Amino acid sequence: MIQRSLTLFAGLFALILVIGWVMGLPFTSSRLVEAAAYALIALGLNLQWGYGGLFNFGIMGFLMVGGFAVTFISYPVNPQFWGADGPWLLGRALLAFFAGALLVLAARQSHRAGITGKWKTVLTVIAWFVAYCIYRSQIDPAAAYIESDAGGKWVGGLGAHPVLGWLFGGVLAAAIAYFVGKISLGLRTDYLAIATIGISEIIRALIKNMDWLTRGTLTVSPIPWPVPLPDAYAGGGQPALLLARGGFLLLAIAVLAIAILLISRAYAGPWGRMMRAIRDNHIASASMGKNVTARQLEIFVFGSVLMGIGGAMLVSFVQIFDPSSYQPINHTFLIWVMVIVGGAGNNWGAVFGAVLIWLIWVISEPLAKAVFDVVSYWSSTAGWGAIPDIEARSAQMRVFVLGLVITIALRFAPKGLIPEVVRREG
Description:
single chain, ABC transporter involved in vitamin B12 uptake, BtuC, 16 helices
Protein backbone atom coordinates (compact mmCIF):
# COMPACT_ATOMS: atom_id res chain seq x y z
CA MET A 1 0.00 0.00 0.00
CA ILE A 2 2.89 2.36 0.77
CA GLN A 3 4.44 1.69 -2.64
CA ARG A 4 1.09 2.31 -4.32
CA SER A 5 0.65 5.60 -2.47
CA LEU A 6 4.14 6.78 -3.37
CA THR A 7 3.56 5.87 -7.01
CA LEU A 8 0.29 7.79 -7.12
CA PHE A 9 1.78 10.88 -5.47
CA ALA A 10 4.74 10.71 -7.88
CA GLY A 11 2.26 10.64 -10.77
CA LEU A 12 0.41 13.60 -9.24
CA PHE A 13 3.67 15.52 -8.96
CA ALA A 14 4.40 14.78 -12.61
CA LEU A 15 0.93 16.06 -13.54
CA ILE A 16 1.62 19.29 -11.65
CA LEU A 17 4.88 19.73 -13.54
CA VAL A 18 3.10 19.22 -16.86
CA ILE A 19 0.40 21.74 -15.93
CA GLY A 20 3.10 24.22 -14.89
CA TRP A 21 4.87 23.77 -18.20
CA VAL A 22 1.72 24.07 -20.34
CA MET A 23 -0.35 26.62 -18.37
CA GLY A 24 2.46 28.63 -16.79
CA LEU A 25 3.69 29.09 -13.24
CA PRO A 26 1.23 31.87 -12.22
CA PHE A 27 -1.76 29.68 -13.12
CA THR A 28 -0.27 26.58 -11.48
CA SER A 29 0.76 28.33 -8.26
CA SER A 30 -2.72 29.76 -7.86
CA ARG A 31 -4.35 26.36 -8.39
CA LEU A 32 -2.01 24.70 -5.88
CA VAL A 33 -2.95 27.17 -3.13
CA GLU A 34 -6.63 26.46 -3.78
CA ALA A 35 -5.90 22.71 -3.85
CA ALA A 36 -4.29 22.94 -0.39
CA ALA A 37 -7.42 24.61 0.97
CA TYR A 38 -9.66 22.00 -0.66
CA ALA A 39 -7.44 19.26 0.80
CA LEU A 40 -8.16 20.64 4.27
CA ILE A 41 -11.89 20.68 3.52
CA ALA A 42 -11.71 17.12 2.17
CA LEU A 43 -9.99 16.07 5.41
CA GLY A 44 -12.95 17.48 7.30
CA LEU A 45 -15.39 15.44 5.23
CA ASN A 46 -13.14 12.40 5.60
CA LEU A 47 -13.40 12.78 9.36
CA GLN A 48 -17.18 12.91 9.21
CA TRP A 49 -17.84 10.25 6.59
CA GLY A 50 -14.66 8.19 6.32
CA TYR A 51 -14.16 7.94 10.08
CA GLY A 52 -17.66 8.49 11.42
CA GLY A 53 -19.99 7.32 8.63
CA LEU A 54 -21.91 10.63 8.71
CA PHE A 55 -23.45 11.86 5.44
CA ASN A 56 -22.92 15.61 5.54
CA PHE A 57 -24.25 17.31 2.42
CA GLY A 58 -24.15 20.75 4.01
CA ILE A 59 -20.47 21.43 3.30
CA MET A 60 -21.24 24.60 1.36
CA GLY A 61 -22.82 26.18 4.43
CA PHE A 62 -19.67 25.68 6.52
CA LEU A 63 -17.49 27.06 3.71
CA MET A 64 -19.64 30.19 3.60
CA VAL A 65 -19.37 30.54 7.38
CA GLY A 66 -15.58 30.35 7.12
CA GLY A 67 -15.56 32.92 4.32
CA PHE A 68 -17.73 35.29 6.32
CA ALA A 69 -15.56 34.80 9.42
CA VAL A 70 -12.29 35.80 7.75
CA THR A 71 -14.03 38.74 6.07
CA PHE A 72 -15.42 40.00 9.38
CA ILE A 73 -12.14 39.56 11.25
CA SER A 74 -9.61 40.79 8.68
CA TYR A 75 -11.41 43.42 6.57
CA PRO A 76 -10.54 47.01 7.57
CA VAL A 77 -12.67 48.77 10.16
CA ASN A 78 -15.63 50.83 8.91
CA PRO A 79 -15.32 54.08 10.94
CA GLN A 80 -18.64 55.39 9.69
CA PHE A 81 -20.47 52.46 11.29
CA TRP A 82 -18.63 52.73 14.62
CA GLY A 83 -19.11 56.49 14.72
CA ALA A 84 -22.89 56.26 14.33
CA ASP A 85 -25.67 54.64 16.37
CA GLY A 86 -25.24 51.21 14.75
CA PRO A 87 -23.26 49.57 17.59
CA TRP A 88 -25.80 50.74 20.17
CA LEU A 89 -28.71 49.40 18.12
CA LEU A 90 -26.94 46.06 17.58
CA GLY A 91 -26.24 45.86 21.30
CA ARG A 92 -29.94 46.23 21.99
CA ALA A 93 -30.70 43.53 19.44
CA LEU A 94 -28.16 41.23 21.10
CA LEU A 95 -29.75 41.82 24.51
CA ALA A 96 -33.15 41.05 22.97
CA PHE A 97 -31.74 37.81 21.55
CA PHE A 98 -30.43 36.69 24.93
CA ALA A 99 -33.69 37.70 26.62
CA GLY A 100 -35.61 35.57 24.13
CA ALA A 101 -33.20 32.67 24.63
CA LEU A 102 -33.69 32.84 28.41
CA LEU A 103 -37.45 32.91 27.90
CA VAL A 104 -37.36 29.75 25.77
CA LEU A 105 -35.02 28.05 28.24
CA ALA A 106 -37.37 28.88 31.09
CA ALA A 107 -40.30 27.40 29.17
CA ARG A 108 -38.34 24.20 28.52
CA GLN A 109 -37.67 23.91 32.25
CA SER A 110 -41.30 24.56 33.19
CA HIS A 111 -41.70 20.94 34.33
CA ARG A 112 -39.85 21.96 37.48
CA ALA A 113 -42.83 24.19 38.29
CA GLY A 114 -45.30 21.35 37.70
CA ILE A 115 -46.19 22.21 34.08
CA THR A 116 -45.92 19.01 32.05
CA GLY A 117 -47.34 17.26 28.99
CA LYS A 118 -49.14 19.26 26.35
CA TRP A 119 -49.19 22.40 28.51
CA LYS A 120 -45.41 22.45 28.53
CA THR A 121 -45.42 22.09 24.74
CA VAL A 122 -47.90 24.95 24.36
CA LEU A 123 -45.87 27.13 26.71
CA THR A 124 -42.67 26.40 24.77
CA VAL A 125 -44.30 27.31 21.45
CA ILE A 126 -45.59 30.57 22.92
CA ALA A 127 -42.13 31.32 24.35
CA TRP A 128 -40.55 30.81 20.92
CA PHE A 129 -43.11 33.13 19.32
CA VAL A 130 -42.61 35.86 21.94
CA ALA A 131 -38.81 35.52 21.73
CA TYR A 132 -38.95 35.86 17.95
CA CYS A 133 -41.09 39.00 18.19
CA ILE A 134 -38.78 40.54 20.80
CA TYR A 135 -35.70 39.90 18.69
CA ARG A 136 -37.23 41.11 15.44
CA SER A 137 -38.47 44.28 17.14
CA GLN A 138 -34.84 45.24 17.72
CA ILE A 139 -32.87 43.71 14.84
CA ASP A 140 -35.10 45.06 12.04
CA PRO A 141 -34.67 48.77 12.86
CA ALA A 142 -30.99 48.17 13.60
CA ALA A 143 -30.45 46.52 10.20
CA ALA A 144 -32.41 49.25 8.38
CA TYR A 145 -30.35 51.97 10.05
CA ILE A 146 -26.99 50.30 9.38
CA GLU A 147 -27.83 49.78 5.69
CA SER A 148 -28.64 53.47 5.31
CA ASP A 149 -26.06 56.15 4.47
CA ALA A 150 -26.07 57.36 8.07
CA GLY A 151 -25.22 53.90 9.42
CA GLY A 152 -22.29 53.26 7.10
CA LYS A 153 -24.03 50.77 4.73
CA TRP A 154 -22.69 47.76 6.65
CA VAL A 155 -20.78 46.77 9.78
CA GLY A 156 -17.38 46.25 8.16
CA GLY A 157 -14.49 44.26 9.61
CA LEU A 158 -12.26 44.36 12.65
CA GLY A 159 -8.96 44.86 10.86
CA ALA A 160 -7.23 41.91 12.57
CA HIS A 161 -4.76 39.41 11.08
CA PRO A 162 -6.32 37.02 8.53
CA VAL A 163 -5.00 33.95 10.36
CA LEU A 164 -7.20 34.97 13.30
CA GLY A 165 -10.04 35.01 10.77
CA TRP A 166 -9.17 31.44 9.79
CA LEU A 167 -9.29 30.38 13.43
CA PHE A 168 -12.55 32.24 13.96
CA GLY A 169 -13.95 30.48 10.88
CA GLY A 170 -13.18 27.14 12.51
CA VAL A 171 -14.71 28.20 15.83
CA LEU A 172 -17.85 29.61 14.19
CA ALA A 173 -18.26 26.48 12.05
CA ALA A 174 -17.84 24.34 15.18
CA ALA A 175 -20.54 26.27 17.03
CA ILE A 176 -22.99 25.92 14.15
CA ALA A 177 -22.08 22.24 13.68
CA TYR A 178 -22.79 21.61 17.35
CA PHE A 179 -26.36 22.87 17.07
CA VAL A 180 -26.86 21.20 13.69
CA GLY A 181 -25.57 17.93 15.11
CA LYS A 182 -27.78 18.14 18.19
CA ILE A 183 -30.78 18.45 15.88
CA SER A 184 -29.82 16.10 13.05
CA LEU A 185 -27.56 13.33 14.29
CA GLY A 186 -30.44 11.31 15.67
CA LEU A 187 -31.78 10.91 12.13
CA ARG A 188 -31.18 7.94 9.86
CA THR A 189 -28.41 8.25 7.28
CA ASP A 190 -30.53 9.39 4.32
CA TYR A 191 -32.55 11.79 6.47
CA LEU A 192 -29.32 13.21 7.89
CA ALA A 193 -28.15 13.99 4.36
CA ILE A 194 -31.43 15.75 3.54
CA ALA A 195 -31.36 17.71 6.81
CA THR A 196 -27.82 18.96 6.25
CA ILE A 197 -28.70 20.08 2.72
CA GLY A 198 -31.59 22.10 4.11
CA ILE A 199 -29.45 23.67 6.84
CA SER A 200 -26.79 24.57 4.29
CA GLU A 201 -29.38 26.38 2.18
CA ILE A 202 -30.63 28.22 5.27
CA ILE A 203 -27.08 29.41 6.01
CA ARG A 204 -26.63 30.52 2.40
CA ALA A 205 -29.92 32.43 2.45
CA LEU A 206 -29.02 34.18 5.70
CA ILE A 207 -25.56 35.24 4.55
CA LYS A 208 -26.87 36.43 1.17
CA ASN A 209 -29.64 38.52 2.73
CA MET A 210 -27.93 39.99 5.82
CA ASP A 211 -26.60 42.99 3.91
CA TRP A 212 -25.93 44.94 7.11
CA LEU A 213 -23.43 42.26 8.23
CA THR A 214 -22.09 40.57 5.07
CA ARG A 215 -22.98 43.07 2.30
CA GLY A 216 -24.87 40.18 0.70
CA THR A 217 -24.65 40.12 -3.08
CA LEU A 218 -22.70 43.40 -3.14
CA THR A 219 -19.55 41.39 -2.23
CA VAL A 220 -16.59 42.46 -0.09
CA SER A 221 -13.14 43.06 -1.58
CA PRO A 222 -10.19 43.10 -1.21
CA ILE A 223 -9.77 40.68 1.68
CA PRO A 224 -6.26 41.03 3.18
CA TRP A 225 -3.69 38.26 2.74
CA PRO A 226 -1.96 36.66 5.74
CA VAL A 227 1.38 36.98 3.89
CA PRO A 228 2.90 39.91 1.95
CA LEU A 229 1.22 40.74 -1.35
CA PRO A 230 3.19 40.91 -4.62
CA ASP A 231 3.48 44.69 -4.21
CA ALA A 232 5.65 44.15 -1.13
CA TYR A 233 8.42 42.51 -3.18
CA ALA A 234 11.00 44.58 -5.00
CA GLY A 235 10.94 44.51 -8.76
CA GLY A 236 7.33 43.46 -9.16
CA GLY A 237 6.19 41.45 -12.14
CA GLN A 238 5.89 37.67 -12.30
CA PRO A 239 8.72 36.92 -9.80
CA ALA A 240 6.98 39.00 -7.13
CA LEU A 241 3.67 37.28 -7.89
CA LEU A 242 5.26 33.83 -7.57
CA LEU A 243 7.02 34.77 -4.33
CA ALA A 244 3.76 36.04 -2.80
CA ARG A 245 1.78 32.99 -3.85
CA GLY A 246 4.63 30.75 -2.72
CA GLY A 247 4.42 32.28 0.76
CA PHE A 248 0.66 31.71 0.84
CA LEU A 249 1.15 28.12 -0.36
CA LEU A 250 3.71 27.40 2.37
CA LEU A 251 1.34 28.73 5.03
CA ALA A 252 -1.55 26.66 3.63
CA ILE A 253 0.64 23.53 3.54
CA ALA A 254 1.71 24.16 7.14
CA VAL A 255 -1.93 24.33 8.28
CA LEU A 256 -2.70 21.17 6.28
CA ALA A 257 0.29 19.34 7.77
CA ILE A 258 -0.75 20.24 11.33
CA ALA A 259 -4.28 18.97 10.64
CA ILE A 260 -2.98 15.68 9.19
CA LEU A 261 -0.63 15.17 12.15
CA LEU A 262 -3.32 15.76 14.76
CA ILE A 263 -5.92 13.63 12.99
CA SER A 264 -3.46 10.76 12.41
CA ARG A 265 -2.38 10.70 16.06
CA ALA A 266 -5.98 10.75 17.27
CA TYR A 267 -7.16 8.10 14.84
CA ALA A 268 -4.27 5.74 15.66
CA GLY A 269 -5.23 5.69 19.34
CA PRO A 270 -8.19 4.43 21.38
CA TRP A 271 -10.41 7.27 20.11
CA GLY A 272 -9.87 6.17 16.52
CA ARG A 273 -10.63 2.52 17.30
CA MET A 274 -13.82 3.59 19.04
CA MET A 275 -14.88 5.72 16.05
CA ARG A 276 -14.24 2.84 13.66
CA ALA A 277 -16.35 0.57 15.85
CA ILE A 278 -19.21 3.09 15.91
CA ARG A 279 -19.01 3.59 12.16
CA ASP A 280 -19.03 -0.13 11.39
CA ASN A 281 -21.71 -1.16 13.92
CA HIS A 282 -23.21 1.53 16.10
CA ILE A 283 -25.68 -0.89 17.71
CA ALA A 284 -22.90 -3.14 18.97
CA SER A 285 -20.93 -0.10 20.14
CA ALA A 286 -23.92 1.23 22.07
CA SER A 287 -24.39 -2.17 23.70
CA MET A 288 -20.78 -1.93 24.94
CA GLY A 289 -21.63 1.29 26.79
CA LYS A 290 -20.40 3.85 24.23
CA ASN A 291 -22.35 7.08 23.87
CA VAL A 292 -22.76 6.83 20.11
CA THR A 293 -24.58 10.13 19.56
CA ALA A 294 -22.05 12.10 21.64
CA ARG A 295 -19.11 10.60 19.75
CA GLN A 296 -20.77 11.28 16.39
CA LEU A 297 -21.41 14.87 17.45
CA GLU A 298 -17.75 15.11 18.38
CA ILE A 299 -16.49 14.03 14.99
CA PHE A 300 -19.12 16.11 13.18
CA VAL A 301 -17.86 19.22 14.97
CA PHE A 302 -14.18 18.39 14.36
CA GLY A 303 -14.78 17.89 10.65
CA SER A 304 -16.72 21.14 10.41
CA VAL A 305 -13.82 23.03 12.00
CA LEU A 306 -11.56 22.00 9.12
CA MET A 307 -14.25 22.98 6.62
CA GLY A 308 -14.60 26.41 8.20
CA ILE A 309 -10.84 27.00 8.14
CA GLY A 310 -10.59 25.77 4.55
CA GLY A 311 -13.43 28.04 3.47
CA ALA A 312 -11.70 31.00 5.14
CA MET A 313 -8.43 30.17 3.36
CA LEU A 314 -10.16 30.16 -0.03
CA VAL A 315 -11.75 33.56 0.54
CA SER A 316 -8.47 35.02 1.80
CA PHE A 317 -6.65 33.84 -1.30
CA VAL A 318 -9.14 35.08 -3.91
CA GLN A 319 -9.56 38.28 -1.84
CA ILE A 320 -13.30 38.53 -2.41
CA PHE A 321 -16.28 37.31 -0.43
CA ASP A 322 -19.22 36.81 -2.78
CA PRO A 323 -22.11 34.77 -1.31
CA SER A 324 -23.61 34.41 -4.80
CA SER A 325 -20.56 32.48 -6.02
CA TYR A 326 -21.22 29.51 -3.73
CA GLN A 327 -22.86 26.67 -5.64
CA PRO A 328 -23.58 23.10 -4.46
CA ILE A 329 -21.73 21.49 -7.39
CA ASN A 330 -18.52 23.41 -6.59
CA HIS A 331 -18.70 23.47 -2.82
CA THR A 332 -20.40 20.22 -1.85
CA PHE A 333 -20.50 17.69 -4.68
CA LEU A 334 -16.89 18.36 -5.69
CA ILE A 335 -15.68 17.74 -2.12
CA TRP A 336 -17.52 14.41 -2.02
CA VAL A 337 -15.88 13.38 -5.30
CA MET A 338 -12.47 14.22 -3.84
CA VAL A 339 -12.97 11.91 -0.86
CA ILE A 340 -14.62 9.11 -2.86
CA VAL A 341 -11.92 9.04 -5.54
CA GLY A 342 -9.06 9.55 -3.10
CA GLY A 343 -10.18 7.00 -0.55
CA ALA A 344 -12.53 7.45 2.43
CA GLY A 345 -11.02 6.71 5.82
CA ASN A 346 -7.48 7.54 4.69
CA ASN A 347 -6.02 11.00 5.31
CA TRP A 348 -3.53 10.75 2.47
CA GLY A 349 -6.25 9.43 0.20
CA ALA A 350 -8.38 12.50 0.95
CA VAL A 351 -5.45 14.84 0.29
CA PHE A 352 -4.53 13.04 -2.93
CA GLY A 353 -8.12 13.05 -4.15
CA ALA A 354 -8.54 16.75 -3.33
CA VAL A 355 -5.46 17.85 -5.28
CA LEU A 356 -6.13 15.49 -8.21
CA ILE A 357 -9.83 16.32 -8.62
CA TRP A 358 -9.26 20.06 -8.23
CA LEU A 359 -6.56 20.05 -10.90
CA ILE A 360 -8.78 18.01 -13.23
CA TRP A 361 -11.66 20.40 -12.57
CA VAL A 362 -9.69 23.55 -13.39
CA ILE A 363 -7.81 22.25 -16.46
CA SER A 364 -10.83 20.52 -18.03
CA GLU A 365 -12.25 23.77 -19.41
CA PRO A 366 -9.11 25.16 -21.12
CA LEU A 367 -8.20 21.68 -22.36
CA ALA A 368 -11.68 21.14 -23.80
CA LYS A 369 -11.55 24.58 -25.41
CA ALA A 370 -8.24 23.75 -27.08
CA VAL A 371 -9.66 20.47 -28.42
CA PHE A 372 -12.83 22.19 -29.65
CA ASP A 373 -10.78 24.91 -31.37
CA VAL A 374 -8.74 22.32 -33.26
CA VAL A 375 -11.81 20.28 -34.24
CA SER A 376 -13.66 23.46 -35.22
CA TYR A 377 -10.75 24.54 -37.43
CA TRP A 378 -10.64 21.22 -39.27
CA SER A 379 -14.43 21.02 -39.60
CA SER A 380 -14.47 24.53 -41.05
CA THR A 381 -11.68 23.59 -43.47
CA ALA A 382 -13.65 20.53 -44.55
CA GLY A 383 -16.72 22.66 -45.19
CA TRP A 384 -18.76 21.27 -42.30
CA GLY A 385 -18.89 24.55 -40.40
CA ALA A 386 -17.38 25.68 -37.10
CA ILE A 387 -18.46 24.38 -33.68
CA PRO A 388 -20.83 26.95 -32.15
CA ASP A 389 -20.62 28.29 -28.57
CA ILE A 390 -17.20 26.83 -27.84
CA GLU A 391 -16.84 28.81 -24.59
CA ALA A 392 -20.09 27.47 -23.13
CA ARG A 393 -19.44 23.93 -24.33
CA SER A 394 -15.95 23.98 -22.80
CA ALA A 395 -17.34 24.98 -19.40
CA GLN A 396 -19.90 22.17 -19.57
CA MET A 397 -17.17 19.64 -20.32
CA ARG A 398 -15.89 19.98 -16.76
CA VAL A 399 -18.94 18.15 -15.45
CA PHE A 400 -18.58 15.46 -18.12
CA VAL A 401 -14.90 14.91 -17.30
CA LEU A 402 -15.66 14.79 -13.58
CA GLY A 403 -18.37 12.18 -14.15
CA LEU A 404 -15.98 10.16 -16.28
CA VAL A 405 -13.33 10.24 -13.54
CA ILE A 406 -15.87 9.07 -10.94
CA THR A 407 -17.02 6.23 -13.18
CA ILE A 408 -13.49 5.00 -13.86
CA ALA A 409 -12.47 5.32 -10.21
CA LEU A 410 -15.49 3.43 -8.91
CA ARG A 411 -15.02 0.74 -11.55
CA PHE A 412 -11.35 0.00 -10.89
CA ALA A 413 -10.91 1.31 -7.32
CA PRO A 414 -14.30 1.18 -5.56
CA LYS A 415 -12.70 1.94 -2.17
CA GLY A 416 -10.66 4.83 -3.57
CA LEU A 417 -7.21 5.15 -5.07
CA ILE A 418 -5.63 5.12 -1.58
CA PRO A 419 -8.16 3.22 0.54
CA GLU A 420 -8.34 2.88 4.29
CA VAL A 421 -5.87 0.43 5.81
CA VAL A 422 -7.42 -1.56 8.66
CA ARG A 423 -4.88 -3.24 10.88
CA ARG A 424 -6.22 -6.31 12.63
CA GLU A 425 -4.31 -7.66 15.60
CA GLY A 426 -4.38 -11.18 16.97
